[in-house]
Specification:
The chain is α/β, with parallel strands linked by helices and 266 residues long. It has 2 domains: 157 residues, 3-Layer(aba) Sandwich (Rossmann fold), CATH 3.40.50.720; 94 residues, ProC C-terminal domain-like fold. 53% of the residues lie in helices and 14% in strands. The protein is built from 11 helices and 8 strands. The protein has an 8-stranded mixed beta sheet with strand order 3-2-1-4-5-6-7-8, sandwiched between helices.
Length: 266
Protein backbone atom coordinates (compact mmCIF):
# COMPACT_ATOMS: atom_id res chain seq x y z
CA UNK A 1 0.00 0.00 0.00
CA UNK A 2 1.25 3.48 -0.89
CA UNK A 3 0.79 5.66 2.16
CA UNK A 4 1.49 9.17 0.80
CA UNK A 5 -0.09 10.71 -2.29
CA UNK A 6 1.11 14.18 -3.31
CA UNK A 7 -1.01 16.15 -5.75
CA UNK A 8 1.20 18.79 -7.35
CA UNK A 9 4.93 18.92 -6.75
CA UNK A 10 5.99 22.48 -7.48
CA UNK A 11 8.27 24.58 -5.30
CA UNK A 12 6.40 24.07 -2.04
CA UNK A 13 5.29 20.49 -2.65
CA UNK A 14 8.83 19.61 -3.67
CA UNK A 15 10.28 21.30 -0.59
CA UNK A 16 7.97 19.32 1.68
CA UNK A 17 8.71 16.07 -0.13
CA UNK A 18 12.49 16.51 -0.16
CA UNK A 19 12.50 17.53 3.50
CA UNK A 20 10.42 14.55 4.60
CA UNK A 21 12.53 12.12 2.57
CA UNK A 22 15.79 13.57 3.86
CA UNK A 23 14.64 13.34 7.47
CA UNK A 24 13.09 9.88 7.24
CA UNK A 25 9.47 10.96 7.77
CA UNK A 26 8.57 9.31 4.48
CA UNK A 27 10.30 6.54 2.54
CA UNK A 28 10.62 6.79 -1.22
CA UNK A 29 8.73 3.53 -1.74
CA UNK A 30 5.75 4.93 0.17
CA UNK A 31 5.29 8.10 -1.91
CA UNK A 32 3.29 8.61 -5.10
CA UNK A 33 3.16 11.86 -7.07
CA UNK A 34 0.41 13.07 -9.35
CA UNK A 35 1.10 16.01 -11.64
CA UNK A 36 -1.00 17.81 -14.25
CA UNK A 37 0.18 15.36 -16.92
CA UNK A 38 1.63 11.87 -17.04
CA UNK A 39 4.87 13.19 -18.54
CA UNK A 40 5.29 15.75 -15.76
CA UNK A 41 4.49 13.08 -13.19
CA UNK A 42 7.12 10.70 -14.55
CA UNK A 43 9.79 13.42 -14.58
CA UNK A 44 9.06 14.57 -11.04
CA UNK A 45 8.89 11.02 -9.73
CA UNK A 46 12.26 10.21 -11.29
CA UNK A 47 13.73 13.38 -9.74
CA UNK A 48 12.75 12.26 -6.22
CA UNK A 49 13.00 8.49 -6.70
CA UNK A 50 9.30 7.88 -5.98
CA UNK A 51 6.32 6.50 -7.89
CA UNK A 52 3.84 8.44 -9.98
CA UNK A 53 0.12 8.22 -10.60
CA UNK A 54 -1.88 9.04 -13.68
CA UNK A 55 -5.28 9.50 -12.04
CA UNK A 56 -4.75 9.72 -8.27
CA UNK A 57 -6.70 6.56 -7.44
CA UNK A 58 -4.20 5.89 -4.63
CA UNK A 59 -6.13 8.48 -2.61
CA UNK A 60 -8.59 5.72 -1.65
CA UNK A 61 -5.94 3.93 0.43
CA UNK A 62 -3.34 6.60 1.23
CA UNK A 63 -2.63 7.48 4.83
CA UNK A 64 -1.87 11.08 3.79
CA UNK A 65 -3.02 13.00 0.72
CA UNK A 66 -1.09 16.25 0.32
CA UNK A 67 -2.94 18.72 -1.88
CA UNK A 68 -0.12 21.00 -3.03
CA UNK A 69 -1.57 22.71 -6.08
CA UNK A 70 -2.19 26.42 -6.64
CA UNK A 71 -5.43 27.82 -5.16
CA UNK A 72 -7.14 28.22 -8.53
CA UNK A 73 -6.55 24.52 -9.28
CA UNK A 74 -7.89 23.26 -5.94
CA UNK A 75 -11.56 22.80 -6.97
CA UNK A 76 -10.69 20.65 -9.98
CA UNK A 77 -8.01 18.65 -8.18
CA UNK A 78 -10.09 18.13 -5.04
CA UNK A 79 -13.18 17.00 -6.92
CA UNK A 80 -11.07 14.49 -8.88
CA UNK A 81 -9.72 13.11 -5.60
CA UNK A 82 -13.17 13.04 -4.04
CA UNK A 83 -14.21 10.40 -6.57
CA UNK A 84 -11.90 7.99 -4.72
CA UNK A 85 -13.31 8.89 -1.27
CA UNK A 86 -10.03 9.47 0.62
CA UNK A 87 -10.01 7.73 3.98
CA UNK A 88 -6.70 9.17 5.21
CA UNK A 89 -5.77 12.70 6.20
CA UNK A 90 -6.18 15.27 3.41
CA UNK A 91 -3.70 18.13 3.93
CA UNK A 92 -4.06 21.28 1.85
CA UNK A 93 -1.36 23.93 1.55
CA UNK A 94 -3.40 26.22 -0.75
CA UNK A 95 -3.53 29.82 0.43
CA UNK A 96 -6.95 31.48 0.82
CA UNK A 97 -8.86 28.20 0.27
CA UNK A 98 -10.86 27.77 3.46
CA UNK A 99 -11.67 24.57 5.32
CA UNK A 100 -15.31 25.16 4.46
CA UNK A 101 -14.51 25.37 0.76
CA UNK A 102 -12.29 22.29 0.93
CA UNK A 103 -15.01 20.30 2.72
CA UNK A 104 -17.49 21.18 -0.02
CA UNK A 105 -15.35 19.33 -2.58
CA UNK A 106 -15.06 16.08 -0.63
CA UNK A 107 -17.52 13.51 0.77
CA UNK A 108 -18.93 14.35 4.19
CA UNK A 109 -16.63 13.23 6.98
CA UNK A 110 -13.40 13.60 5.01
CA UNK A 111 -10.60 14.41 7.47
CA UNK A 112 -9.19 17.69 6.19
CA UNK A 113 -6.33 19.71 7.64
CA UNK A 114 -5.29 23.07 6.25
CA UNK A 115 -1.68 24.24 6.61
CA UNK A 116 0.20 27.42 5.78
CA UNK A 117 3.95 26.69 5.42
CA UNK A 118 6.49 29.27 4.33
CA UNK A 119 9.29 28.79 1.83
CA UNK A 120 12.12 28.25 4.38
CA UNK A 121 10.73 24.73 4.83
CA UNK A 122 13.00 24.03 1.85
CA UNK A 123 16.03 24.49 4.14
CA UNK A 124 14.48 22.98 7.26
CA UNK A 125 13.81 26.36 8.89
CA UNK A 126 10.17 26.89 8.00
CA UNK A 127 7.20 27.98 10.06
CA UNK A 128 3.90 26.20 9.43
CA UNK A 129 0.48 27.13 10.76
CA UNK A 130 -2.00 24.24 11.08
CA UNK A 131 -5.79 24.18 11.44
CA UNK A 132 -8.06 21.14 11.38
CA UNK A 133 -11.49 20.82 9.81
CA UNK A 134 -14.56 19.55 11.73
CA UNK A 135 -13.87 15.90 10.90
CA UNK A 136 -10.13 16.06 11.62
CA UNK A 137 -9.09 14.15 14.74
CA UNK A 138 -6.29 14.85 17.20
CA UNK A 139 -4.38 12.08 15.46
CA UNK A 140 -4.75 13.89 12.12
CA UNK A 141 -3.32 17.03 13.70
CA UNK A 142 -0.45 15.14 15.33
CA UNK A 143 0.33 13.46 12.02
CA UNK A 144 0.42 16.83 10.28
CA UNK A 145 2.58 18.36 13.01
CA UNK A 146 5.03 15.47 12.72
CA UNK A 147 5.43 16.12 9.00
CA UNK A 148 6.02 19.85 9.27
CA UNK A 149 8.14 19.80 12.43
CA UNK A 150 10.81 18.08 10.37
CA UNK A 151 10.86 21.23 8.24
CA UNK A 152 10.98 23.83 11.02
CA UNK A 153 8.52 24.99 13.67
CA UNK A 154 4.73 24.61 13.77
CA UNK A 155 1.73 26.22 15.40
CA UNK A 156 -1.69 24.53 15.61
CA UNK A 157 -4.66 26.80 16.18
CA UNK A 158 -7.82 28.18 14.62
CA UNK A 159 -8.28 28.82 10.93
CA UNK A 160 -8.31 32.57 11.58
CA UNK A 161 -4.95 32.29 13.30
CA UNK A 162 -3.68 30.32 10.31
CA UNK A 163 -4.68 33.17 8.00
CA UNK A 164 -3.12 35.72 10.34
CA UNK A 165 0.12 33.74 10.41
CA UNK A 166 -0.05 33.59 6.63
CA UNK A 167 0.21 37.39 6.58
CA UNK A 168 3.08 37.34 9.08
CA UNK A 169 5.16 34.20 8.53
CA UNK A 170 3.76 32.93 5.23
CA UNK A 171 4.61 36.16 3.45
CA UNK A 172 7.38 36.95 5.93
CA UNK A 173 10.28 35.57 3.88
CA UNK A 174 9.40 38.14 1.23
CA UNK A 175 9.67 40.91 3.81
CA UNK A 176 12.95 39.46 5.07
CA UNK A 177 14.45 39.29 1.57
CA UNK A 178 13.62 42.97 1.07
CA UNK A 179 15.31 43.81 4.39
CA UNK A 180 18.39 41.77 3.50
CA UNK A 181 18.60 43.47 0.12
CA UNK A 182 18.20 46.91 1.70
CA UNK A 183 20.87 46.21 4.33
CA UNK A 184 23.17 44.92 1.59
CA UNK A 185 22.62 48.14 -0.38
CA UNK A 186 23.52 50.05 2.78
CA UNK A 187 26.71 48.03 3.07
CA UNK A 188 27.65 48.74 -0.53
CA UNK A 189 26.87 52.42 0.03
CA UNK A 190 29.44 52.63 2.82
CA UNK A 191 32.09 50.77 0.83
CA UNK A 192 31.61 46.99 1.17
CA UNK A 193 31.74 44.61 -1.83
CA UNK A 194 28.24 43.44 -2.83
CA UNK A 195 28.83 39.74 -2.05
CA UNK A 196 30.24 40.54 1.39
CA UNK A 197 27.36 42.90 2.16
CA UNK A 198 24.71 40.32 1.20
CA UNK A 199 26.35 37.56 3.24
CA UNK A 200 26.78 39.84 6.25
CA UNK A 201 23.16 41.05 6.10
CA UNK A 202 21.72 37.55 5.73
CA UNK A 203 23.88 36.00 8.44
CA UNK A 204 23.15 38.86 10.82
CA UNK A 205 19.37 38.41 10.48
CA UNK A 206 19.78 34.63 10.81
CA UNK A 207 21.86 35.00 13.95
CA UNK A 208 19.53 37.55 15.51
CA UNK A 209 16.52 35.34 14.85
CA UNK A 210 18.29 32.35 16.38
CA UNK A 211 19.05 34.36 19.52
CA UNK A 212 15.34 35.20 19.92
CA UNK A 213 14.29 31.57 19.50
CA UNK A 214 17.00 29.98 21.61
CA UNK A 215 17.17 32.44 24.50
CA UNK A 216 13.43 33.01 24.80
CA UNK A 217 14.12 36.67 25.51
CA UNK A 218 11.95 39.47 24.17
CA UNK A 219 13.48 41.08 21.06
CA UNK A 220 13.52 44.43 22.86
CA UNK A 221 15.64 42.96 25.68
CA UNK A 222 18.14 41.61 23.16
CA UNK A 223 18.15 44.95 21.37
CA UNK A 224 19.00 46.68 24.63
CA UNK A 225 22.06 44.45 24.96
CA UNK A 226 23.58 45.93 21.81
CA UNK A 227 22.51 49.56 22.20
CA UNK A 228 25.03 51.33 24.43
CA UNK A 229 23.98 54.76 25.74
CA UNK A 230 24.97 57.38 23.20
CA UNK A 231 26.45 54.67 20.96
CA UNK A 232 26.44 53.87 17.27
CA UNK A 233 23.69 51.22 17.24
CA UNK A 234 21.10 53.44 18.91
CA UNK A 235 21.99 56.20 16.44
CA UNK A 236 21.21 53.82 13.58
CA UNK A 237 17.98 52.61 15.17
CA UNK A 238 16.87 56.19 15.84
CA UNK A 239 17.26 57.10 12.18
CA UNK A 240 15.41 53.96 11.04
CA UNK A 241 12.55 54.78 13.41
CA UNK A 242 12.43 58.34 12.08
CA UNK A 243 12.14 56.92 8.57
CA UNK A 244 9.21 54.74 9.66
CA UNK A 245 10.73 51.25 9.58
CA UNK A 246 8.52 49.86 12.34
CA UNK A 247 5.34 51.47 10.96
CA UNK A 248 6.15 50.23 7.45
CA UNK A 249 6.48 46.63 8.65
CA UNK A 250 3.24 46.79 10.62
CA UNK A 251 1.39 48.38 7.70
CA UNK A 252 2.83 45.78 5.33
CA UNK A 253 1.55 42.83 7.36
CA UNK A 254 -1.82 44.58 7.71
CA UNK A 255 -2.05 45.06 3.94
CA UNK A 256 -1.18 41.40 3.38
CA UNK A 257 -3.93 40.33 5.79
CA UNK A 258 -6.47 42.57 4.07
CA UNK A 259 -5.56 41.13 0.67
CA UNK A 260 -5.86 37.59 2.01
CA UNK A 261 -9.32 38.32 3.41
CA UNK A 262 -10.40 39.83 0.09
CA UNK A 263 -9.17 36.79 -1.83
CA UNK A 264 -11.04 34.43 0.50
CA UNK A 265 -14.31 36.26 -0.22
CA UNK A 266 -13.98 35.97 -4.01
Amino acid sequence: MKKVLIIGCGAMGGAILSGCLARGVWNQEDVVLKEHSAEAGRKKAAQYGVSWSEDGHEAAEADVVLLAVKPNVVPEAAKALAAYAPKGTVISIAAAVTLRDLASYFPEGTRIVRVMPNTPVSVGEGYTAIAGGPAASEEDLRKTEAIFRTLGRTFTGTERQLDELGALSGAGPGYAFVMIDALADAGVNIGLPRAVAIEAAAQTLLGAAKMVLETGKHPAALRDQVTSPGGTTIAGIRMMERRGLRAALIDGVDACMAKSDAMAKQ
